Amino acid sequence: MSSIMSDLDEADATVRVRFVVNGRKTACDVAPRDTLVDCLRTQLELTGTHAGCEMGACGACLVQLDGRAVHACLMFAVQADGARIDTIEGLSESGVIADLQAEFHRRNALQCGFCTPGMLINAHELLSNVARPSREAIRDALSGNFCRCTGYEAIVDAIAAVAEARAAKAAQGAEGASS
Amino acid sequence: MTAPLTPLDRPNSYIGRSVPRPNAKRLLAGRGRYVTDIRLPRMLHAAFLRSPHAHARIISIDADAARALAGVHLIATGADLARICTPWTGTLDHFKGMTSEPQLPLPLDRVVWAGQAVVAVVADSRALAEDALELISVDYEELPAVVDLDEARQPGTPRANPASQSNICFRTQLDSGGVDEVFVAAAHVIEQQFSFGRHTPVTLEPRAIVADYEPDSGMLTVHHATQTPYQFQDLYSRHYNIPEARVRVIAPDIGGSFGMKLHVYHEDMAVVGLSMMLGRPVKYVADRIESFVSDIHARDHRVQARMAIDADGKILAMDVHDATAIGAFSTYPRTSVVEGNQVIRLIGAPYDFTSYRAALEVVFQNKVQTSQYRAVGHPIACAVTERMVDIAASRAGFDPLAMRDRNVIADDAYPLVSPTGYKFEALSHQACLRRLREIMDYDALRGEQAELRRRGVHRGIGIATFVEITNPSPAFYGVGGARISSQDGATISLTPTGEVRCAISVTEQGQGTEAIIGQIVADQLGLAQEHVKVITGDTEVTPHGGATWACRGAGIGGETALQAARRLKANILAIAALVLQEQAAALDIVDGQVVSAASRQPRLDVAEIARIAYFRSDTLPPGTQAQLTVSHHFAPQGYPFAFTNGIQGCSLEVDVDTGFVKLLKHYVVEDCGRIINPMLVDEQLRGGVVQGLGAALFEECRYGETGQLLNGSLADYLVPMAMEMPDIVIDHVETPTADTILGAKGCGEAGTAAASACVLNAVNDALTPFGASINTIPITPARILKALNRY
Ligand code: FES
Ligand code: FES
Q1: May I ask the CATH architecture of the domain B298-474+638-787?
Q2: Of A88, A111, A154, which is closest to B510 when you measure between CB atoms?
Q3: Whole-prediction pTM value?
Q4: Which of A51, A152, A153, B578 is most buried, with most CB under 10 Å away?
Q5: Phi-psi region of B177 (alpha: psi -120 to 50; beta: other; left: phi over 0)
Q6: Where does CATH 3.30.365.10 sit in chain B?
Q7: What is the atom index within ligand 1 of the atom nearest the CA of A74?
Q8: Judging by DSSP bridges, how do beta strands A84-86 and A15-21 pair with one another?
Q9: pLDDT, tens digit (0-9, with 9 covering 90-100), for B653-680
């Protein structure tokens, strides 16, 4: 009996973490060794975040943590306790990256799509920091996102086009406001 | 670009049009469903204990402690799985004399490479299964390991497989005759040795499988990240003795494959057996470290080449020897000798000469298997040929482009048979060369290079022509006894509301197979593409077919869809003719409406025909049976392969102090026959080029002396990233094949085929002032510095 109980205790060695995922308060019981990417994909069924290397080298697992792109494979879920997490699913629903997604689609800046959520999250972060990055700067910003399929050029083109469109829209808005 | 099949201004004319892939939006929203994502009720997870030795005897396995761990459901060894799975052997009959040892999911008594799976654990979670692995102890007796390719070929070297007589897997030769005489009489003879490192496909989604055996119905369902579901249906059925109709293989979204996911892997076979033993779904996803030691590798060749040319720079003959090491087994069911076989058959292919001799030696060693990966053999053949052409050009005093102009087979010389027996229907080397000269602005680039060289900046320009094998007929695998289909099948239906669904055996891994099939069907039926739904990747749903490999999706799959759509259209018009009391020949379909063929006057909605046929068949003349579902198969019957061709160029800069190479620009002119979707073709070319550039400069599986892979992680194995890759300029020449109505060939391998050859030539071009040369791939900074005597 006691051995059954201790077995059960062991199986129960989880920690409760709470975060705001894609705008909703969420609580999860995770093992201390569970990474954030595992927790998102398995417990929360947010399978749009992918794992390609589990060592911070490929960028497939990028999510936004308190508004910044981070590798969900390099963090334990417990470390994200109390954080705001936005994944590709949430960013898609809120519409904040709709223009990037549309441009990726139009230019076919994806093939198998496995790298794509990470690419989009990284591109979104880049464009939030730099309004009109050069092609060089875009390529540089993507240097931690591995894509085996596309050859990268269409991705660079798509991001550059969105940067231009956003800048043009901003200029128009400013003009509209001043007139 | 030359004129497409149909004028693009006609409604529903989709062939030749760049339209986005309907399926891509899902993936952009993070709503793909990859095998990695699949979770089934009562699903368990497998993990594998792997051999730490490259070659060892298994003395004993002690798994008692692991078995006792809570949450562990099953521990299986080689002997356990051998009871239910029959062994397989990776040989084909048409490779005469080829040998390879029988293989089982897990080894019985000997491991033959470091990383080979030895024991399987199935547990409630992957983490628990890995905990259990740590409690298993295996006693090994180490055996001598054969690591290096050259060493494996030496007589007296220990054997990678003690049961076999030598390390030789396969030998073959080609000889057009009289080669020695041509060499003796030639004005110049050049000779060079080449070495190509091992690399590996590194798909971003690793291998993944969920096997689900249901004991009561005896039904096996496998969700499998593969290009070839039918091939696996056949294999699981035969090796586990389950009737074929009770095996269903589903390939949903696949995170990249490039040939890697069409081979039999020991772990995947094991997972099927584990599910059968437990009667529950079992999932296995290779982690990245496991991928490096268990996914197929490719290349690993040493080539010795000679070329004879006359005083005018005309190529007269080539004589080559290719040695390649393939690991301890030949892969199943396609074997590991196809690459070498294609190397010796493709060398020299673009050029007009008839004296050719080649020998191939395929050897075993104690490393993971090599096998077919994107552009099988092409990059080796192309690098050897094109480097030899460049050396010959400099010897004879010709510019590299002029040298190729002198020597490529003339565009009006076809059809012809190459000295290696390949039958070329129609290639366009001369037209491609002309286009490349223009898009590179070749003469200006040379001028700039000379100018910069004076200032100590070392730019190089590289050129590489290529021939690509696409659309294989049964001559490729079928004749060798492999149950790998060269035909494809489609079932196409008009639904009751007038939509069309097409279930077809070619598969999608992101290249846009479903998009182009939808374009072809919509084009042929006269519908808007959004009314066509294409279904792929499920053996339960589509007819049997070869699926997607060797660039057969467009050429063979596309033709299958085209012919099926034409048959369905004829059936629709037959019913329309009855309803309208017209001749069927006087009717056509435009934009979902039956029209008068002559006046284009709308007569009746296609949806109305569907309504009548499905719900009011009583209103049709007696004896009419509407056939609004058509199943159709197509197998290539003309040329054994559809060869394509093209040429690539690149410009790069070598930093002679650090050995670093900066790629500046890459150019491709390609002829893949009829182009269905130019945007998708360009994407295939760019992706292919970048894979070739990675191979040229970065990618190499490095082994230690004891056969341990030293750089098996994404931090240590370098892959091409956005920052290092150039923009790629693409142009096309279009020479459709006359073997099919569609005229499409393939384009998936073209980029990879010549990119590394281009870089090799360009780096050597840059190093010319130093009298240095390099003939090893990948061209790492260390190798460049070594060539420059600075290291
Ligand atoms: S999975 Fe996190 S960076 Fe690769
Ligand atoms: S689209 Fe496949 S990895 Fe980027």
Answers
A1: 2-Layer Sandwich (3.30)
A2: A111
A3: 0.95
A4: A152
A5: left
A6: 7-32+487-634, 298-474+638-787
A7: 2
A8: parallel
A9: 999 999 999 999 999 999 999 999 999 9
